[in-house]
Amino acid sequence: MRRNENNPIIDLISSLVAPFIMLFGLYVIFHGHYSPGGGFQGGTLLAASVILLRLSLGSELGQSQFPRRLGTPLASLGVLIYYGTGLAALILGGAFLNYGFIPFSALAPLRRSWGILSVEIGVGLAVMAVLVAIYDDLLEGEPDA
Amino acid sequence: MHPELEIVLLLVLLITAVTALMIKNLLTAVVSLTVFSFISALLYAAMGAVDVGFTEATVGGGVTGVLLLLLIFKTTRRSSD
């Protein structure tokens, strides 16, 4: 977006706050089975931190963490992780998305726990990439300073 | 939550929703919709649905508000009707 002038307060505060939002987003994704949250909420938080950086720092500096060209490939990668977990369960013996057949560990409850974690990671990655891609597509032809 | 507090919050919901519809300055309308989202997230959490409140707060404030602000930036800032 267009920057009017260099505002050092906004630059500093948003650069300091954004890593904490990303850390909290990762916490929400990985603890979705026990506390409120999960894949979708954590993905939205990660996208909010990237959008904060793009709003406050402008277009060149705002793309340091997440370049514009990575939007669609990462979304496809997230969907592929979700579908790949289901397909691995199908190939390795059982039904589609039956995590008990993927050899994550020796105990059966831990296999299901790892399976749920891997689909949550896929969902979080896809949600973050799609929300940042929507923001980038809305601002496609804008000139900025 | 106490019923009086819930009634006050529902009244605030009503006021912000009517404000978002009637005001001509579109930036004020977007901010009013964001306030609506946050108060309804508080009500969801008070009713026991903490996951729904979490999602409503992040999506209503972090995503919908920002995207509506982008749309105002690209079109006009005053409504024409």
Q: Overview of this structure, please?
A:
The complex is a heterodimer of chains A (145) and B (81). Chain A is an all-alpha fold. Chain A has one domain (8-138). Chain A has helices at 8-30, 39-61, 71-91, 108-138. In chain A, helix 2 packs parallel to helix 4 (108-138) and helix 3 runs antiparallel to helix 4 (108-138). With 81 residues, chain B is mostly helical. Chain B has a single domain (3-74), classed as Four Helix Bundle (Hemerythrin (Met), subunit A) (Up-down Bundle). Chain B contains three helices and no strands. In chain B, helix 1 runs antiparallel to helix 2 and helix 2 (26-46) runs antiparallel to helix 3. The interface between A and B is medium-sized, with 17 and 15 residues.
Provide keyphrases for this structure.
heterodimer; A: 145 residues; mainly alpha; 4 helices; 68% helix; B: mainly alpha; Four Helix Bundle (Hemerythrin (Met), subunit A); 81% helix; flat
Layout of helices and strands:
The complex is a heterodimer of chains A (145) and B (81).
Chain A: H1 8-30, H2 39-61, H3 71-91, H4 108-138
Helix pairs in contact in A: 1-2, 2-4, 3-4
Chain B: H1 3-22, H2 26-46, H3 50-74
Helix percent of chain B reads over 70%
Relative strand content of chain B: under 5%
How much is the radius of gyration of chain A in Å?
18 Å
Let me know the number of strands of chain B. 0
Tell me, briefly, the overall form of chain A.
Answer: elongated
Q: Averaged pLDDT of chain A, please?
A: 88
Q: Which consecutive residue ranges of chain B, at least 5 long each, have pLDDT under 50? A: none
Overall pLDDT of chain B, averaged? Answer: 90
Q: Summarize the largest interface: chains and residue counts.
A: A-B, 17 and 15 residues
User: How is the biggest beta sheet of chain B arranged?
Assistant: none
- How large, in whole angstroms, is the Cα Rg of chain B? 14 Å
